[in-house]
Amino acid sequence: MAEEIKIEGTAKEDKYRSLYPQLRSLMDGEPDLIANMANVASALKETFDFFWVGFYRVSDHQLLLGPFQGPIACTRISYGKGVCGTAWKEGRTVLVADVDQFPGHIACSSLSRSEIVVPVKRSGKIIAVLDVDSEQLNTFDEVDARYLEQICDLFGNSR
Ligand code: SME
To answer: Which end of the chain, N or C, is surrounded by fewer C-beta atoms within 10 Å?
Structure first.
């Protein structure tokens, strides 16, 4: 197992390109879902210094807070509620440039201004979502969506 993540480049896309294969080999050797979520949350937080990075797992018809990095957060989110519940219900990545413009946004922290939520699927079924929050408006774009989706695809073999 790699002892540390080494990131090359300064542009966002270069950083993702450098991070992705390291996460892939880290997760290749580890089948445990929670352990892999913990390392992915840490690696994204360390690489990009996002305000909040974490997972909510589908549990008992709700999203339940899982491994994360950042301030404490809401523990349970209902189906279809907030950005996370919307990404779960619609089965797609949701990009929010300004959380104040997203009806029903759940403000776990008043400091969060923009957000991206990516579903984590196993055999086509959503088992969790990855939520990344920023203190700035308009932080996330298609580059984040593409790479975060690739990273979430790595969970296909985790149990
Ligand atoms: N803002 C999210 C809730 C989770 S926190 O941001 C960590 C939402 O609207 O679903």
So the answer is: N
**99 alpha carbon – ligand 1 mean position (Å):** 9
- 107 Cα: distance to centroid of ligand 1 (angstroms): 6
Residue 143 in any domain: the answer is yes
Does residue 4 lie within any of the structural domains? no
Q: Which run of H or of E encompasses 62? A: strand 62-69
pLDDT digits (tens, 9 = 90+) for 59-110: 999 999 999 999 999 999 999 999 999 999 999 999 999 999 999 999 999 9
Mean pLDDT of 121-144: 97
Q: Domain range spanning residue 77?
A: 12-157
Instruction: Answer whether 130 contacts ligand 1 (Cβ < 6 A).
Output: no
d(CA 74, CA 136): 20
Best residue among 53, 55, 131 to mutate for probing ligand 1's pocket (most ligand atoms within 8 Å of CB) is 131
